[in-house]
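Table S4 entry, Iron complex transport system ATP-binding protein.
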Amino acid sequence: MNALETKSLTLAYGDQPVIENLDHCFPKGKISVLIGSNGSGKSTLLRSLARLLKPRKGSVILDGKAITTLSTKAVARKLAILPQSPECPEGLTVLQLVKQGRYPYQNWMRQWSEEDERAVKRALKITNLEGFEERTVDSLSGGQRQRVWIAMVLAQETDTILLDEPTTYLDLSHQLDILDLLYELNRSEGRTIIMVLHDLNLSARYADNMVVVHDKTVYAHGKPESIITPELVKRVFGIECLVMKDPVYGKPLCIPCGKGRRAEDENLRAVDTQ
């Protein structure tokens, strides 16, 4: 079963196509990670999956229906998106922002309810933000702010969550915190996670399904161990690399071959022998 599908999808900015005639399926209940070089169209594709970008041609299918035929609230009750580097109004508290996740369920006949309250409290608990409710979002660290945005997304209680580079500008510790949180949500609750990541090694560690966006289409997709090869990295990213098995996680580990010092450098060998 698939969470989202694209059929003959073409996306463009002006006269410049970014994605052309794409037929692709994103499996339900799995973590799919979009990777590709800068400007490859991975973030553009993610935006179209969330109905934030209208296709030039073709369609995105959600629950058997073209997503463009569904109302905004209907879509928001089925999937949530966290864009890259979202901005929060100055002075807004953590609780106020997380409550925004319940917008899809509000109308003039249905105001704030016990169900909304439960969803917000649960989202704060999952993201370890209990006790932060009255803090302003702009007073928090980068990692804490990202957790608040994820809590807002969780409060929507959707089966599918889309995230565009959720670890951008975070140090390695906070990157792992965010990715571990998303991994646990997937494993414990079966949430479908579709996200864009830049780091190949973190992508390989957390993805069930890697989707390589290149040359205006999905160039390759599947399990990390079948996707990450020196040949693919050379073709898609233009760099030479070594690929080995991660000794801890068993996933592919990519070692790029840049122009920095190598082990055979005479100075480094001299140090090693001392």
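The chain has two domains: 2-78+158-273, 84-157.
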